[in-house]
Amino acid sequence: MELYIGYLAGVLGTICWVPQTWKAWSTQDTSGLSLAANLLFLATVTLWLVYGLLVGDLPLILANGCGLLIVLSIVVAKLKYK
Amino acid sequence: MELYIGYLAGVLGTICWVPQTWKAWSTQDTSGLSLAANLLFLATVTLWLVYGLLVGDLPLILANGCGLLIVLSIVVAKLKYK
Questions:
Q1: Which of A81, B16, B74, B81 has its C-alpha lying 20 to 30 A from A55's C-alpha?
Q2: Which positions, given as ranges, span the membrane (chains A, B) (predicted)?
Q3: Among partner residues A5, A18, A40, which is closest to B16 by beta-carbon distance?
């Protein structure tokens, strides 16, 4: 039971920013997005990816590898359409 | 070394949305924020909190308890200033 909740949280945490990425690129409206918050989140995901690589945890590597691309895409949209 | 990276990622992941909360409430500009993404993220943080409570993991409980308040505050701002 706990494991399923953990897996669900992991998957949801990876894909939850897809709608934000989509919105930023499709509307080009990024004025309300905090660059600081998204850069800090980018650093967070990068650290989790490094941690996953160091301890050899495949779920962490996959989740944060995908997450890195998604968040990077939000940051690029913010810098492009500011 | 890995542990320090993990702890740093955990702390950063908890506080990284504070600038977004601040920006949303101070500028009242939330048009660029994706409600779907923030609701999914709220669900994610809630699931991690439930998972932490079920397995009795204090760092998970503390991080996601704080995270829940921060993300909830962003969602409320989005609903209030849409």
A1: B16
A2: 6-25, 32-54, 60-79
A3: A40
Q: Give the one of A22, A36, A40 whose C-beta lies nearest to B12's C-beta.
A: A40
Task: Determine the residue among A8, A39, A41, A44 to mutate to test chain B binding: the one whose Cβ has the most chain B Cβ atoms within 10 Å.
Answer: A44
Tens of pLDDT, residue by residue over B18-56, are 999 999 999 999 999 999 999 999 999 999 999 999 999
Q: Are B15 and A54 a contacting pair at CB < 8 A?
A: no
Distance CA(B46)–CA(B25), nearest Å, equals 22
> What are chain A's domains?
2-80 (1.20.1280.290)
Reading phi first (left if > 0) and then psi (alpha if -120 to 50, else beta), residue B33 is in: beta
